[in-house]
Amino acid sequence: MFGKRAHQGVTVAPVAAPAAASTNAEPARGVAAAAPPPPIARESEQRPESYFQTKAMIFSALIEAIDLSALSKLDQESAREEIRDIVHEIVTIKNLVLSIAEQEDLLDDICNDVLGFGPLEPLLARDDIADIMVNGPTRTFIEVGGKIQLTNVRFRDNAQLMNICQRIVSQVGRRVDEASPICDARLLDGSRVNVIAPPLAIDGAALTIRKFKKDKLTLDQLVRFGAISNAGAEILKIIGRVRCNVVISGGTGSGKTTLLNCLTNYIDVGERVITCEDAAELQLQQPHVVRLETRPPNLEGVGQITMRDLVKNCLRMRPERIIVGEVRGPEAFDLLQAMNTGHDGSMGTLHANSPREAMGRLESMITMGGFSLPMKTIREMIVGSIDIIVQAERLRDGSRRITKITEVIGTEGDVVITQDLVTYEVEGEDESGRLRGRHVGTGIVRPAFWERARYYNLERELADALDKVNQ
Q: Where are the beta strands (DSSP E) in 138-232?
């Protein structure tokens, strides 16, 4: 069925057995492993070169023997069984000295190369990894528990790495090559992907994957992780329910998208929500959601759909809430316009180190869009549109915390007035180096959105949460 399997004229000397314990031998994606995930190997624990030579030789023989077009018509399990049979034949024909465990390791790696994302598959299958960072074919790093570690994962060469990058981005109709060496994409589970290829990446293609947990996080789970206090979480829940316009601010990897996902849990199921993103990664659970995604230009340099195009089109789609995955350009003006014209409860994220800087960035983005508006007008638009800024931060020990919940009150002259409802105070660190701190209130008992809470009959819950956080 799959073509000729004989391998004439090839004689190979027995290869020294590679290390028996393989950190890459894990279940295929979607199959839960009963045992806890194995520790990621450091560079000093990397497999011997003979392992990769053996794997490359078997892989080359497999490609000659198998009919890839016929293989693509099989389901995953049947394809793995077919590859297993051929690999066993190749090992027998070439007189390779391999234990059963070593053959299983090789089989897993080769199946991943043919059917999945190659050496990345074991990392993608683990739910405790937050980021995967591939710096060329020989060095791959991961982030676990807020700390970056070097792994023993490597690719045969840059061609294999580029092939896997192409496989990933082609799933969402995009491409990456020398003509278009930068690409943003996503995996099917919503994980964010960025690829930058040679010649821009000097040491080989650089692939970065921001993984999302299979189980969507909630505010209650963030409370258990210490990211926010119980009372602070109650305030955020009320903010989501009473349709405040919210901007989530923070640095790279601070948890902005995770927090945005958590807040969307409190959108009423009857509301029509439209999301706009560069790479669709929001995981809304409401039944009435329209997801939109930007599009890069094609080979001729035409056909690009920008974030601003999407936000402007949203206004014609009868949205009740507009959610922008990340505000980074002139679309800030259209989002503020939408917030200020009846689309209460809209949300977005942006990169900034504090609520004050977030407003400065909004001003800059609107100015960069070519809008010749006086600065005072821009600030009045910001004040009239945004109710709450939530600041997320990644601390030096790798933990993520919500460090401020800030209200936008109004203007005094040319200055925007804000007030903090909740702040995070670092109190020190424990013997393991983890930072200790607590969320405290600032004494505000009647925030500016009090009347909005009363309109939704939630003023009592808001008063109780503020009393608890101010204790």
A: 140-144, 147-150, 182-186, 192-196, 206-210
Q: Say what the alpha-carbon torsion angle 49, 53, 56, 60 is, to the nearest 10 degrees.
A: 170
**What average pLDDT does this structure show over 365-382?**
86
SS (HEC) of 221-240: HHHHHCCCCHHHHHHHHHHH
Nearest to 347 by CA among 275, 283, 406, 288: 275
What pLDDT score does 5 carry? 40
Find the Cα–Cα–Cα–Cα dihedral 459, 460, 466, 471, rounded to 10°. 160
| pLDDT tops 50 at residue 21 | no
State how beta strands 147-150 and 321-324 pair. Answer: unpaired
Higher pLDDT pick, 372 / 149: 149
Residue 305, Cα to own-chain centre: how many angstroms?
A: 22
Which one-letter amino acid corresponds to residue 328?
R
The dihedral region occupied by 191, where left means phi > 0, alpha psi between -120 and 50, and beta the remainder, is: beta
Q: What is the distance between the alpha carbons of residues 402 and 394, in angstroms, rounded to a whole number?
A: 9
Q: Taking CA 132 as the corner, what is the angle to CA 293 and CA 253, rounded to the nearest 5 degrees? A: 65
Q: Which pLDDT value is given to residue 46?
A: 57
Residue showing tokens 């981005």:
169
pTM: 0.75
- Tokens 């693509």 correspond to what residue? 72
Q: What confidence score (pLDDT) does residue 40 get?
A: 44
How many whole angstroms separate alpha carbon 358 and alpha carbon 108? 47
Question: Which range among 14-18, 19-23, 37-41, 199-203 has the greatest average pLDDT?
Answer: 199-203
Q: 449: Cβ–Cβ under 8 A, 6 or more apart, which residues?
A: 239, 242, 244, 387, 388, 407
Q: What is the DSSP string of 373-418?
A: --HHHHHHHHHHH--EEEEEEE-TTS-EEEEEEEEEEEEETTEEEE
pLDDT at residue 95 greater than cutoff 70: yes
CB crowding 330-368: b at 16 or more within 10 Å, else e:
bbbbbbbebbbeebbbbbbbbbbebbbebbebbbebbbe
pLDDT at 81: 77
Mean pLDDT computed over 387-407: 93
Specify the pLDDT at position 464.
93
Given a contact cutoff of 8 angstroms between Cβ atoms, the answer to whether 22 and 47 are in contact is yes
- Note whether 335 and 313 are within 8 A (CB): no
Phi and psi at residue 359, to the nearest 5°: -70, -35
Tell me the C-alpha distance between 119 and 116, whole Å. Answer: 9
Q: What are the tens digits of pLDDT across the range 254-305?
A: 889 889 989 998 998 889 999 998 877 788 878 899 999 888 887 777 888 8
- Average pLDDT on 138-167 reads 89
